[in-house]
UniProtKB/TrEMBL annotation, chain A:
GO terms for cellular component: blood microparticle; haptoglobin-hemoglobin complex; hemoglobin complex. The gene is Hbrh. Belongs to the globin family. PANTHER family: HEMOGLOBIN FAMILY MEMBER, HEMOGLOBIN SUBUNIT EPSILON. SUPFAM superfamilies: Globin-like (SSF46458). One of its GO terms (molecular function) is metal ion binding. This is Hemoglobin subunit beta. Involved in oxygen transport from the lung to the various peripheral tissues.
UniProtKB/TrEMBL annotation, chain B:
GO terms for molecular function: haptoglobin binding; heme binding; iron ion binding; organic acid binding; oxygen binding; oxygen carrier activity; peroxidase activity. One of its GO terms (biological process) is hydrogen peroxide catabolic process. Keywords: Heme, Iron, Metal-binding, Oxygen transport, Transport. This is HBA protein. The gene is Hbaa. One of its GO terms (cellular component) is blood microparticle. InterPro entries: Globin (IPR000971), Globin-like_sf (IPR009050), Globin/Proto (IPR012292), Hemoglobin_a-typ (IPR002338), Hemoglobin_oxygen_transport (IPR050056), Hemoglobin_pi (IPR002339). Transmembrane segments: none annotated. Involved in oxygen transport from the lung to the various peripheral tissues. It comes from the Eukaryota. Belongs to the globin family. Pfam families: Globin. The keyword Iron applies.
């Protein structure tokens, strides 16, 4: 069980409270597909991913980004019970989606950069450290049911 | 992994824009890295890790200078950083995984200081460049 200090919980809540899940999710997923183009392998049915402009404007990317970050919000609500909360999602990613867990780490780091760009100096080193821990824990929980 | 002409142009533009702030960015990159990835502090047991640490400032300056040098000689990063590569292989022997952590924190610093600069395309180019630098610095490890 991961322990979260009061300060860490506060740093998570204060950032999350100001996040536009749709915008942030869309941007994070788009950047993942642009910066690490091999991640496009999971999205053959998304249509036009031929250029950064196409990716950023792609409605399926936006929608899926929103879905992913909404799920991340669930994780934040269940920090003390993450493995159970993500149990089915983990099985799905392994058995049906066949996603290498490394991709969860890549997306987590991209999310951090998107948050940094959004919050600028308010995304302090302490804030970043807490969120790095969070994305790491989420990635770990998503990979937990892999076999 | 190859840096395209537009990658090179993007990277050069970033460092031109950053200009004199590079030293400050270097220090903040280290500060964030030590904070977010405490295991990286094991390479600096003698450092004062507090905010405003003179050692972090000074080392950040060195790191920034190396990145600037690499950007200025982007067609031959291996050549430009050859001595630094020798140093890391023979003396410093920093585990290769840590260069990714440093690179990531540098991106966070750029994003937090100048979000408009870090478009998705520039983000991709800069990430590739930082990977290339890490690769060069660990190239002679074995």
């Amino acid at each position: 069980m991961v322990h979260w200090s009061a300060e860490e919980k506060q740093l998570i809540a204060s950032v999350w409270g100001k996040v536009n899940v749709e915008e942030c999710g869309a941007e994070a997923l788009a950047r993942l597909l642009i910066v690490y183009p091999w991640t496009q392998r999971f999205f053959d049915n998304f249509g036009n991913l031929s250029s950064p402009t196409a990716i950023v404007g792609n409605p399926k990317v936006r929608a899926h980004g929103k879905k992913v970050l909404t799920s991340f919000g669930e994780a934040i609500k269940n920090l003390d019970n993450l493995k159970v909360t993500y149990s089915k999602l983990s099985e799905l990613h392994c058995d049906k989606l066949h996603v290498d867990p490394e991709n969860f780490r890549l997306l987590g780091d991209i999310l951090i950069i998107v948050l940094a760009a959004h919050f600028t100096k308010d995304f302090t080193p302490a804030c970043q450290a807490t969120w790095q821990k969070l994305v790491g824990v989420v990635a770990h929980a998503l990979a937990h049911k892999y076999h | 992994m190859v840096l395209s002409a537009s990658d090179k142009a993007n990277v050069k533009a970033v460092f031109t824009k950053i200009g004199g702030q590079a030293e400050e960015f270097g220090a903040e990159t280290l500060h964030r890295m030590f904070h977010a990835y405490p295991q990286t502090k094991t390479y600096f047991p003698h450092f004062d890790m507090g905010k405003g640490s003179a050692q972090i400032k000074s080392h950040g300056k060195k790191v920034a200078a190396a990145l600037v040098e690499a950007a200025n000689h982007i067609d031959d990063i291996a050549g430009a950083l050859s001595k630094l590569s020798d140093l890391h292989a023979q003396k410093l022997r920093v585990d290769p995984v840590n260069f990714k952590l440093l690179g990531h924190c540098f991106l966070v610093v750029v994003a937090s200081h100048n979000p408009a600069l870090l478009t998705p395309e520039v983000h991709a180019s800069l990430d590739k460049f930082l990977c290339a630098v890490g690769t060069v610095l660990t190239a002679k490890y074995r």
